[in-house]
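Let us work through a complete example step by step.
Step 1: write down the sequence.
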Amino acid sequence: MAGCPQRVPPRRVPPAGPAGAVSQRWPHARAKMEAPALLRVWVLAAMALGGSWATLPDHHVLPDHRVSSETGAVFVHELERELFQEAFVGGHEDDGAAAPITFQAHLRDHPDLPRWLRFVQRDPHQPGYLYGSPTAAEVGTHTIEVLAHNRHTYGTVAQRLVVTVIPAPGGEPPYRGEFLVGNRNVEELLPAAAREMFLEATASVWERDDIRVTNVTSALDRGGRVPLPIEGRKEGVYVTVGSHGAFSPCLVSATSPQSQLRCHQGQQPLASCYDTFAPRFAIRWCNLTLLQVWPSTPAPGPLWGPGVLEEGGDFQPPTEVPPQDLLPGYLVTLLVPLAAAALLCLLLGHLMCCRREGVQKRDLETSDIQLVHHTTIHGDTEELRHMAGSRDVPRPLSTLPMFNVRTGQRINPMPGPPDGARVPLLPQ
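Step 2: predict the structure and record it as tokens.
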């Protein structure tokens, strides 16, 4: 009825006593019972969430990129941010080009890059560079896996870089010069434009047209120190260039002993080509190194003798072995050591038995006066020993003990005036 108040059911009050106590503790017991079930629910939820994250469409794979490199020349590959930025999904349209991207690179099925390849990226807003100088030992195909991370959307883009290293057609340049550029970082000399400018300056100094960059290395990788955070301070880069022609007189004079002496004195070396690189490249001329490397001749292969089987032939072992006479070898092995041992025994017996002088021979070779003198001394000694053993006289006082344990007699072996220093240890 509308006018009647609603009836509120009475609240159940737990009874007093043990039953009431059990009913009051029931929520805690229920919580303890549900803890394993809640833990299983959390684990299943985490697994489901992880599986859903693994299947999110935030990871894209770009087509494989194939490049080639020659031995004896520097290899540089730029990881362009624009190429990877276009592949990200869910990025912000207003700042898509400004999104920070970090790159990671490693050899396929390996945690790190090959020993001849290096990676550098100064800032997430700058591109990354893979660079290195392959040698003849690295000829072949190398698969590099590159992974780009978007720091805003946490998306990833992967790409495989297939690098094919081939031998240089004209061979590696035998004449090489290493310059230390003090006003650049390594990523500033890796772009093609910067390397072309450096090659132009080097060609004018070297006076050759076949100059090419063979290696680029940061000064930090050669033991250099990190520069102070001051404007204009750079890490420094070692740039190695090579040519098939000899060094120019300017470069030779810069590495002469007179120039090295001036460098130790803190002066510039003797060279007339300082202004060629300035002001774009500040060359440390005291660190200039000129090398002349000639290709080593390969070791000659093995010479096959007449016993080498022809292609497709089968080895036919001999069916019969000619008999061999082993008696001479056995006699030589057994009788020669026995004969040597017998000769040694005969020689030793002759020396020990037949070469003895004896007492009679010794007495015959000794003079009579010496024999009489020796006999007299021997007889006198025996007589004195016999007399000393048969005498009956008291022992001297110096040999008597101060305290006779057997009789209890106390005798002073050296009688004299009584003084404090000669008082016996025990009272009289």
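Step 3: interpret the result. The longest helix spans residues 26-54.
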